[in-house]
Amino acid sequence: MTSTEAAAIALQDRAALWSVGEVRASDVVIAACDALVAGLDTPGLRILAACTRAEADYDVHDLLPAALDELGLAFHPVGSEVGQNAAVRALARRMLAGELTPREFTFRIHRRHGHELPLTERLAELDDEYDILECGDRTVDQVDAEVTAEARLLAAHPTDPRR
Fold first, then answer.
1. Which of 63, 148, 29 lies closest to 97, judged by CA?
2. CA–CA distance from 6 to each of 10, 121, 127 (Å)?
3. For 67-76, what is each residue's pLDDT tens digit?
4. What Cα–Cα distance (Å) separates residue 44 from each residue in 21, 25, 119, 130, 146?
5. What angle do CA 97, 101, 104 make, to 5 degrees?
6. How far apart are the first and last CA of the chain?
7. 125 CA to centre of own chain
8. How far apart are alpha carbons 63 and 45 in whole angstroms?
9. Angle between helices 140-156 and 81-96 (to 10 degrees)
């Protein structure tokens, strides 16, 4: 994967995470800056990257859709199932990159989606398993391994910029 492809995926992931409240608007601006440095360049991306931290909370909502569209990436409406699925996949990639532990990953998924989102049902069940480890015959390492396998499946899903 080229650095521009990685930057586009990172920006798409930050946008998805922002749309579900997992990251701040300033994190999206930082991803836009990283995308510019990696070689992506569109007028909308430049405007987004130029936001200050103070402006980000107010301006990202208006600037992000156009910037993503110019790059061939999708902006998922806040609260949409497709946006939630994209955010779950982004969190899976963060976990696999070592930014979250398997336990933190399942906790965040379970807290946000409960057992309601079909894509995350198994992760919510695994979060429940962490809570009852003392009572069962499974170990933390076994549950971590299963969470990691689930995250790999989610992260391996093709990054379709329109889904």
1. 148
2. 6, 28, 29
3. 999 999 988 8
4. 22, 16, 32, 44, 40
5. 125
6. 20
7. 20
8. 8
9. 120
